[in-house]
Structure formats: structure tokens, C-alpha cells
Specification:
Pfam families: 7tm_4. This protein is mainly α and 320 residues long. The chain is built from ten helices and three strands; from the N terminus they run βααβαααβααααα. A three-stranded mixed beta sheet has the order 2-1-3.
């Protein structure tokens, strides 16, 4: 049996990639297609609802909801970069993706995924200022600063993603049609297919992963240490519970996002099981983009009230 790196190695022509089949059973393919399509629709609907509620209700025009709506927008773009092609490969015969197409998907995934991680750190900083310095909150978290931080996150993510993508696709790939043991063009499985020394791009990937995953996670941990100390000094139990509830939703998403990302990017390539990476990738492709708006909607009275008012207004206007 041929390994992925020697798949159709004797064919001539420009290098193209195909993604691994999740299953060979047509019935299971149909079930997976319906399941992932449903998740994708839910991700689009729930994140769009967050953005719409934030920008149509003046009560939600605060830094916290600005970051939340920015996160929702990034996650819509992020999943749209990956999921439609995945669905196409599930229901149809595997269509090859050219080298340029794979590089484009990798660049968008790296940029948007990194921005997602940076935004989670910004949200932790916002909670730190709101809880630890409530009297100075409006002076510190100005609209201009919030916009600059989001733009800076996107710019930094783009700055880190593009050179890594160029470095990966400057490597030679031996063969015409190579099978990626994944459902999208992520850096580690693509590097496995290169027929050259990959130590330099692996080292660059590790450094970038430290910047994208470790540094924001440490900032989040430091923020929550100060937040916890401040909350414990709140005299009323109700006040402490309210303060903790505003942080628990964010922490749930953080642990899933950074935990799965660290398992993929910080393990030595030789110790990575063939199937484990794409199982973990399903978490940050489907679970966290869906979990984020659901958690914030279910646990946040302001968002729930805004959505209820919007639905009731629309129903009233249709009845007129």
C-alpha cells in the first residue's frame, strides 16, 4: 500500500492535491454531508444573529459586544474558507485542488484562525478592564482603541500567515496527485507530503504557533488571575456570581480553541497519529464557531433580550 507521500507518484503534470475520504460508504457519506451541512448552517445563522443584534441595538454597542461581533464575523469567514470544499468532497468524487488553491486556503485559514485566537485574548483584556478597573472602563476601552486592536489582530495574523504559506509551498512536492490526510490544506499534513528537508518550515511553524497560541493564552491566564482576585473581594455572593458568569462563557471557548490547537501544532511530527489531527481540526472547524455564539446567547441576558425584541418587532410588522 502506498503512503500518502507516494500517491500516484509516477503521473506527470503539475502538482495537485486530493483530500482523504472520510468514509467509502455512500450511506455514511450522505449522513456526514447532512450533518456537517446542518452544523455549517447553524454556524452561519447563530453568528449572523450575534452581529445583527450587536449593530441594531444601541444597548449592545459596547466594547464587549464589538469584540464578540468581530469574533462572529471572523468565524463566519473562517468556516466558509473550509466547509464548502469539504462538503463538496464528501458528496462528490474527490476533485483535485491545484497547488495555488491549496496555498490560498492555507493562507486564509492561517490568517483567520490566528485572528480568532487574538480576538479571544482581546476579549479577556476587555473583561479584565471591566471588572478590575470599572470606573476607568469607558476611558480605556474607547471605540477607536477597540477598532485599532481588532485591525491590529488581523494585520498581525496576516503578517504571520503569508510568509509561512510561501515557505511551505516553495518546497518541492514529488508527484502529480498527492493525497492530504486531512479535509483541508492545513500546514502539518501538507508538510508531510514535501520531498525535501522540512526542518526550517517546521521551526517557523513552531515559532508562529508560540506567538498565536501560547502568548495570547498566557495573557488570558494573567488577565483571569487579576479578575479572580478582584471578584473574590466583591462582598456580595450575587455580585461574585454575576462577575464569574460573564467570564465562564469566554473561558469555555478559550480552553477548546487553544487546547485543540496546541495538540495539533506543538507535538513532534513523528509522534502524531495519522488520523488524530483531522479529528481535532473538526473541533476548531465546527465546534468552537458554533459553541461561541450559542454560549454567549444562552448565558447572556442582554443578547437574549435583544434577539427577542427583534423577533417580536418583525412578527408585529408582518401582522400589520
Amino acid at each position: 500500500m502506498l503512503s500518502p507521500s507516494t500517491f500516484y507518484i509516477n503521473q506527470s503534470g503539475p502538482t495537485e492535491f486530493v483530500f482523504r475520504l472520510l468514509t467509502a460508504s455512500p450511506k455514511i457519506q450522505a449522513l456526514l454531508f447532512c450533518f456537517f451541512l446542518l452544523l455549517y448552517i447553524m454556524i452561519l445563522f447563530s453568528n449572523t444573529a450575534i452581529i445583527w443584534a450587536t449593530y441594531t441595538h444601541t444597548s449592545l454597542r459596547t466594547p464587549m459586544y464589538f469584540f464578540l461581533s468581530s469574533l462572529s464575523f471572523v468565524e463566519i469567514c473562517y468556516t466558509t474558507t473550509l466547509v464548502p470544499l469539504m462538503l463538496s468532497n464528501i458528496i462528490k468524487a474527490r476533485k483535485p485542488i491545484p497547488l495555488a488553491g491549496c496555498a490560498t486556503q492555507m493562507s486564509f485559514f492561517g490568517t483567520l484562525g490566528s485572528t480568532d485566537c487574538f480576538l479571544l485574548a482581546l476579549m479577556a483584556y476587555d473583561r479584565y478592564v471591566a471588572i478590575c478597573h470599572p470606573l476607568q472602563y469607558t476611558l480605556i476601552m474607547t471605540p477607536q482603541l477597540c477598532t485599532q486592536m481588532v485591525a491590529g489582530s488581523l494585520g498581525l495574523a496576516l503578517f504571520l500567515s503569508l510568509p509561512l504559506t510561501l515557505l511551505v509551498f516553495n518546497l518541492p512536492f514529488c508527484g502529480h496527485l498527492l493525497e492530504i490526510n486531512h479535509f483541508f490544506c492545513e500546514v502539518p499534513p501538507v508538510l508531510h507530503l514535501a520531498c525535501a528537508d522540512t526542518r526550517v518550515p517546521q521551526a517557523v511553524l513552531y515559532v508562529i504557533s508560540m506567538i498565536v497560541l501560547t502568548a495570547p493564552f498566557l495573557l488570558i491566564c494573567v488577565s483571569y488571575v487579576f479578575i479572580t482576585i478582584t471578584i473574590l473581594h466583591i462582598p456580595s455572593a450575587e455580585g461574585r456570581q454575576r462577575a464569574f458568569s460573564t467570564c465562564s462563557s469566554h473561558l469555555t471557548v478559550v480552553l477548546l480553541q487553544y487546547g485543540c490547537g496546541s495538540l495539533v501544532y506543538f507535538r513532534p511530527p513523528s509522534t502524531t497519529p495519522a488520523d488524530e489531527d483531522w479529528h481535532l481540526a473538526l473541533v476548531y472547524t465546527f465546534v468552537t464557531p458554533l459553541l461561541n455564539p450559542i454560549i454567549y446567547t444562552l448565558r447572556n441576558k442582554d443578547v437574549k433580550n435583544a434577539l427577542k425584541k427583534a423577533i417580536s418587532k418583525k412578527a408585529a410588522s408582518e401582522n400589520l
